[in-house]
């Protein structure tokens, strides 16, 4: 579907979003526990502020190679090796308040870490719909037209149209009506977009995040067909 960057919807309203992840890749000479302590102090200072005002819950359970050490029914925050990861798991508030939450937290960490790369990863699910029949011809590859499987992955470069901007890198995973739990099929669009950070200040990081976020959204709405777009409840 052809859609301009300045016409992109804020969000899909009917709860299609599974995950909205922001990953900040960093360098530091400090041990992970120091980074975690700084995040803890900053989070508790934000209690009562904005959409993320609930008291964080500390969870010491092992998750992947790291530890989910802050979580509530809205967000998860992890430090895994050299990556600080945010995830909205319920009630996506649109990008602006999400970005503000990330900014508030990382502003307390920049004397301890240097962020080098950022990426966003959004996973959306659409139930038992024939996903590959709703992929737009503008983005669809010749191989996809004859593809008979249930999953398709491709990589590409993507940009926001700003002259001179270095394109970001994107990975797109499309899953067509796979069983995710017994008795339920889901079609899933999973898009990750990454870019380097040009600078070390918080404004440099936020500019990079804005860039990869708009590229992810533009790629999503370019991939889907006009007919499928009309079925979505967007705002």
Describe this structure as you would to a colleague.
It is globular and about 50 Å long. The chain is α+β, with helices and mostly antiparallel strands. Helices cover 25% and strands 33% of the residues. Helix 2 runs antiparallel to helix 4. Strand 8 and strand 9 form a beta hairpin. A 9-stranded antiparallel beta sheet has the order 2-3-4-5-1-6-9-8-7, covered by helices on one side. About 3% of the residues have low confidence. It contains 5 helices and 9 strands, in the order βαββββαβαβββαα.
Tag the structure with descriptive keywords.
alpha+beta, 235 residues, 9 strands, 33% strand
Provide the fold topology.
Layout: E1 17-27, H1 32-45, E2 62-63, E3 66-71, E4 75-80, E5 83-88, H2 95-106, E6 114-125, H3 142-145, E7 151-158, E8 168-181, E9 184-196, H4 202-223, H5 226-231
Antiparallel strand pairs: 1-5, 1-6, 2-3, 3-4, 4-5, 6-9, 7-8, 8-9
General form: globular
Count of discrete alpha- or pi-helical segments spanning 4 or more residues: 5
Class per helix and strand makeup: alpha+beta
Mean pLDDT: 83
Task: Please count the beta strands (DSSP E, at least 2 residues each).
Answer: 9
Strand and helix order: EHEEEEHEHEEEHH
């Amino acid at each position: 579907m052809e859609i301009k960057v300045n016409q992109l919807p804020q969000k899909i309203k009917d709860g299609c979003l599974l995950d909205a992840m922001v990953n900040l890749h960093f360098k530091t000479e400090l041990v992970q526990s120091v980074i975690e302590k700084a995040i803890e102090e900053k989070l508790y200072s934000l209690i009562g502020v904005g959409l993320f005002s609930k008291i964080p819950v500390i969870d010491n359970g092992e998750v992947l190679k790291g530890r989910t050490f802050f979580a509530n029914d809205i967000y998860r925050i992890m430090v895994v090796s050299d990556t600080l990861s945010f995830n909205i798991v319920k009630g996506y508030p649109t990008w602006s308040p999400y970005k503000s939450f990330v900014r508030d937290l990382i502003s307390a960490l920049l004397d301890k870490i240097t962020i080098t790369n950022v990426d966003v990863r959004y996973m959306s699910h659409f139930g038992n719909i024939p996903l590959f029949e709703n992929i737009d011809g503008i983005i669809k590859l010749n191989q996809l037209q004859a593809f008979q499987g249930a999953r398709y992955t491709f990589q590409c470069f993507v940009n926001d149209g700003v002259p001179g901007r270095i394109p970001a890198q994107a990975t797109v995973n499309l899953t067509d009506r796979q069983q995710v739990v017994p008795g339920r099929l889901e079609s899933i669009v999973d898009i990750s977009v990454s870019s380097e950070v040009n600078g070390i200040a918080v404004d440099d990081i936020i500019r990079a995040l804005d860039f990869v976020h708009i590229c992810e959204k533009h790629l999503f709405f370019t991939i889907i067909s006009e007919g499928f777009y009309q079925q979505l409840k967007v705002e």
